[in-house]
UniProtKB/TrEMBL annotation:
InterPro entries the record matches: UBP13_Znf-UBP_var (IPR041432), Znf_RING/FYVE/PHD (IPR013083)
The protein's name in its UniProt record: Ubiquitinyl hydrolase variant UBP zinc finger domain-containing protein
Superkingdom of the organism of origin: Eukaryota
Alphabetized Gene3D superfamilies for the sequence: Zinc/RING finger domain, C3HC4 (zinc finger)
Species: Psophocarpus tetragonolobus (Winged bean)
Pfam families the record matches: zf-UBP_var
Residue intervals of the Ubiquitinyl hydrolase variant UBP zinc finger domain: 16-78
């Protein structure tokens, strides 16, 4: 018998904190390494401490704190289509 992800989340909801306006949420860079949401694995935010970890450090944080719920943030760069015309300035006006 396998546990469904939603059932696993429901069983750990007591560990999830709701951020308040005074809480700082570190979601731009891993607190241990230089991983960011644009890194290969993205960032994982611990939903109890609101600290961010790269994919290599999530297991370490789980072993240390026992917090099993993370928010995964991953950004990918969207390439602009090449058939779109580039918008170059045609006039230069200074002080007009």
């Amino acid at each position: 018998m396998t546990i469904e992800p939603l059932d696993l989340l429901r069983s750990n909801l007591s560990r999830v904190r709701i951020p308040e306006p005074t809480n700082r949420i570190y979601k731009h860079e891993c607190c241990i390494s230089f991983d960011s949401p644009r890194s290969e694995g993205g960032l994982f935010i611990d939903m109890c401490t609101f600290l961010a970890f790269g994919k290599d450090f999530v297991g370490w944080n789980y072993e240390k704190t026992g917090n099993p719920v993370y928010l995964h943030i991953k950004q990918t760069k969207k390439l602009a289509p090449e058939d779109r015309p580039s918008k170059k300035p045609t006039l230069l006006a200074i002080g007009v």
